[in-house]
Amino acid sequence: MKKIIIFLFVTGLFSGCGKKLIENPMSILTPEFFTTAQGFDAGLNAAYAGNRWIWGPQDFYTLTVAGTDEFKKGVDGNTELNGYTSNYTPSAGNVANVWKYCYTYINTCNGLVDNAPGISGMDSLLKKRMVGEAKFLRANYYFILVQFWGDVTLNKNFQSTPTTSATRAPMADVYDFIIEDLNAAIAVLPASPLTAGVQPGRATAAAAMHLLAKVYLARAGSSAKKADDYRNAYATATALINSSASSGLGLLPDFGKVFQEGNEANMEVLWSIQHTSNLAYNGSPKQDNRDMDNLLCHLWVPQYENQPGMQRDVFYGRPYIRVIPTRWLTDTAFAERVNDTRYNKTFQTAWICNSLKLIPTWPNPLPPGAPASAQPGQPKFKPGDTAIFMPGHEVPDAQIKATPYQVIPPSKYVPTLAPTLIKYFDTKRSDMNAPSIRPIIVYRLADTYLIAAEAAFMDGRPADAVPYINAVRRRAAYPSGDPQAMEIQASDLSLDYILDERSRELCGELVRWLDLVRTGKLLSRIRLHNTDAQANIQDKHVLRPIPQTQIDATTTGPVYPQNPLW
Q1: How far from 366 is each of 308, 373, 396, 402, CA to CA, in Å?
Q2: I need a surface site. Which of 112, 127, 273, 512 has the fewest CB within 10 A?
Q3: Handedness of CA 267, 335, 409, 300 (dihedral sign)
């Protein structure tokens, strides 16, 4: 059988029922299936299901988190993409997988849009809404592609047969198509995720407006830019912000509640990806967390179980430790911790003893400054006490020796143990090795505020940017800080400051590499802040390489072009 370039169908579909998208096993989609009301509904659910290959597994995570100014390689991380080494080539599996998944589900969306007019026996308003959802999803998939690869194949219609030829469309055409899809979606979708009857994870006009603002902002930073992109990004983002209250949306008072476990449908969330406890779809420990699993609960977790008094458990998670934070992120971006509460709401810095294993004993003689209760030869702590603490600042060695628990200042962070992102922790998993069943928050309103601020600043209107930056910063003071002390002036703003603020607010939310490329800061900031990658990163790395699988599969017509210098 010939190799195929565009992957057409999926075997697992979502079926909408109850209060959220629930997975039910379905048969393989066929082209004819789209022409029935039942098939149309199943096809749309399949298009939604595709997002679980993007947000949750390791591929997209690696392409957006690793090798940035925020995170560098953990002991079990991908060396090639974290460090931009010579082994990072067009054959990289992470790169090929994201490409493949996007095109798989773009074709599903194409089948929905193309076949909708011929479906009978379906309410016309419902059909329009579902087509709008398909266009929103298609725009999402294409937006991923154009940001990573630039010029990409632009398939606007359903492919029902395999093909061995393909060409790359100009980036400008891809962006125009994305914007066309999103404007069409906004016109027919429900107002917001909080609109009555909208299931969690469904597309809404609010999510589409947020994405449209983000698209304008990204295009403005690309070679396909148009003169009014920044102004359109600002207008779209502010329109969403100004209408948010009427839709029930708004910034939560407490930053720490945004990613609180069980609160993923809060008023700040614009769009999320639903995961499930159904083992037919979510994997199991025996499958070693593969495919469409939500692994984000594991991917930052350090090797805490190798420390005195600690063992693996569900609460602290399975230690994949793919990345650790750079010292710039912990020491500089999050340096202000009196009025800005986000550091301690973003990172875990303490572990409580959960095992009798290797609990250390006090030496004889006791070190100066040891607690009055310390006794030579007796355990320094017991289960339920602090076992590990990272104070976030340097501590004298004498004080470390006199402290019962293990104190790890920044100078002692290592690839196996460093502050741990907590936004995706899942303590409700059935097993310590099990994947997460939490929804993944993809778009939220705080990002809309930061998009508005960046767009205004880049459009030469820093004063218009300030209120949106300050709204996010004032919220960050809750409950113990001074909101007024968090406010900035127009003179404080720069593109680097905006990127710093995005780190403080959006750290670990699978956007950083794309942010750095959009702003033209990928090379400069990595050379400044990422000790693993600073010597290796090159001009070519502002685009991902076209997967070798795509080039090899193009056996008819012109050779599929590779990106420059790859």
Answers
A1: 19, 11, 17, 8
A2: 127
A3: positive
